[in-house]
Design a protein that fits this description.
Blueprint (H helix, E strand, L loop, with lengths): L1 H17 L2 H4 L5 E6 L16 H7 L7 E3 L5 E3 L2 E6 L5 E6 L13 H13 L3 H8 L2 E8 L2 E6 L6 H4 L12 H7 L13 E7 L3 E6 L13 E6 L3 H10 L4 E4 L2 H7 L5 E7 L4 E5 L9 H9 L3 H9 L3 E3 L23 H11 L4 E6 L3 H15 L4 E6 L4 H8 L5 E4 L7 H4 L17 H12 L4 H18 L2 E14 L2 E2 L15 E2 L2
């Protein structure tokens, strides 16, 4: 009897162990993610700023040199360490050894430099250069050391190598050379998964990279990104179990999901802000009185409630309250004051009419139309055009055919990146800003890199100077939500809209 009891106990213990979450992690399975729009391609040099759904769909294939923790500190990925010269003009990165691309090619300093030069040769480089800083050249010092040489001191450089907004992900160099432009459809990265099948407009399937350097992170057998148009359709698909996960910035969708007992909702207040930017080079928006009037005419709380179900906070600078770079609302941003708006327009003394472009995203369109209404009350006429996100949208902005554009969240990482947008000598200066006081304030911020307190003070002074000229309207710091069924485990809070879904697993 004692022997039989012992056997029963051992058998029961074995059953419990088999049912434990730790065992579930190793069993694989297929994670299905609902995307809101089709993938346009995998080569980030052709699309320098993929929106969040596409960035998250590219993450299984690629890796950054570094990622960034919630505390702002760099986390080694393909890079082991990074150091700068005292003058912040030279940055040296030591690479991790033993890394291979999914086709077996070795990841080395030469491979990274080849990849970087592809970026510099791309049509998007003028735009990218304005966003990633004054990079003069990138040199492979030895097989595992890369040196980045800058034209001027650039303390924000660490943010470039960990910045999910403007990803500079490396593809296998021999493969890249062989396929040429087809690289946009045939990516070969160092990430934990690799592309198995892509049916444009329908779905993307990934399988495990057999050469991945950290197989402990490969919990899933497959990952499928499926295009499902419409927020409600995707939400219903998660509820029914047809898909496992969706990502959204739509407040109404996130609030509905919170009411569903079979769903989990993980939210993040994104550090950046939705904005409207102006072409300041031609009438009527070349007059600061008009730009100020447009700012005073906007009720940002009403905008947030209407366009995103109150899912976020009104903003007064690029960085949200959770960021160490947040200026505490002390940037002098114009308050909602229709009387001031009308007075400034009367002082201008001419009819105000211009064209604005936005993307076919529900809350963007709602926000754009609401601004039309705000401004119409002031006698301002705005013609609105909708252009698909991605390369087409950036071409529209750079074409000079539009006077204003409503853009997505700038996932703010470091003021050294966000600040460059309004520098008169920056080729990425799409607003055509040419203000001596803005340039001077930014140049002072560049020189103020002794410590973070000094940097922040100089940066906030720069933001206040930008606000005085008003080439941009700050709208809101929006929330971002990850919505998943309860069987999905291992999910972490998004960071700058990056959700590492490929590190999750399914409870079965």
């Amino acid at each position: 009897m004692k022997h039989r009891s012992k056997l029963v106990i051992l058998t029961a213990a074995g059953a419990l162990l088999a049912a434990s979450p730790s065992m579930a992690q190793t069993k694989g399975g297929t994670l299905t993610v609902g995307m809101d729009r089709p993938m346009t391609g995998f080569d980030s040099s052709m699309n320098p700023r993929p929106e969040y759904n596409r960035r998250n769909a590219m993450l299984p294939v690629y890796e950054d040199l570094f990622s960034r923790g919630k505390d702002g500190k760099l986390i080694p990925v393909l890079g082991k360490s990074m150091k700068s010269s005292p003058d912040k003009k030279t940055w040296t990165v030591t690479l991790r050894k033993g890394i291979r691309f999914s086709n077996g090619e070795t990841f080395t300093a030469d491979a990274y430099v080849v990849h970087f030069k592809r970026y510099q040769a791309s049509r998007a480089w003028g735009f990218l250069r304005g966003m990633v800083g004054p990079i003069k050249e990138v040199v492979a010092i030895d097989s595992y050391t890369v040196e980045f040489r800058m034209l001027r001191p650039f303390p924000a450089f660490g943010a470039i190598l960990s910045n999910p907004v403007y990803p500079m992900w490396a593809n296998a160099p021999k493969h890249s050379q062989k396929v040429g432009k087809e690289l946009n459809r045939q990516p070969v990265g160092t990430g934990p998964y690799m592309l198995a099948n892509w049916t444009p407009g329908v779905s993307i399937t990934y399988v495990k990279n057999p050469h991945y350097w950290n197989p402990k992170k490969q919990h899933l057998d497959k990952i499928v990104f499926k295009v499902i148009k419409g927020e409600l359709s995707r939400l219903n698909s998660v509820k029914s179990g047809a898909i496992d996960v969706m990502l959204t910035r739509d407040g109404k969708t996130a609030n509905q999901a919170k009411q569903a007992p079979n769903l989990q909702v993980i939210t993040e207040l994104v550090g950046g802000t939705t904005t409207i930017e102006f072409n300041t080079s031609r009438p009527p928006l070349n007059d600061v009185r008009v730009r100020k009037a447009l700012a005073h005419a906007v009720n940002r709380r009403a905008d947030l409630k209407a366009s995103n179900d109150g899912f976020g906070l009104p903003s007064t600078d690029w960085f949200g309250p959770g960021s160490k770079w947040h200026c505490g609302g002390k940037t002098g941003y114009p308050e909602f004051n229709p009387r001031k708006a009308k007075g400034l327009l009367m002082a201008y003394g001419k009819p105000v009419k211009f064209k604005m472009v936005t993307m076919p995203i529900k809350n963007f369109i709602v926000g754009a139309k609401l601004h039309q209404t705000f401004w119409k009350r002031m006698g301002v006429e705005v013609e609105l055009k909708v252009v698909p996100p991605g390369p087409a949208y950036f071409r529209a902005v750079r074409s000079g055919k539009f006077d204003a554009w409503l853009v997505g969240i700038s996932e703010a990482v470091d003021p050294g990146l966000q600040g460059q947008a309004f520098y008169s000598k920056n080729r990425g200066n799409s607003t055509k800003s040419n203000f001596a006081d803005v340039d001077a304030a930014l140049e002072n911020a560049w020189r103020s890199f002794k410590d973070e307190v000094t940097r922040k003070a100089a940066y906030c002074n720069y933001v206040s100077t930008v606000v005085k000229q008003q080439p941009i309207l700050f709208r809101s710091h929006n929330n971002f939500a990850l919505i998943a069924g309860k069987k999905v485990k291992g999910l972490t809070k998004p960071n700058l809209t990056i959700s590492r879904l490929h590190e999750a697993w399914l409870e079965r």
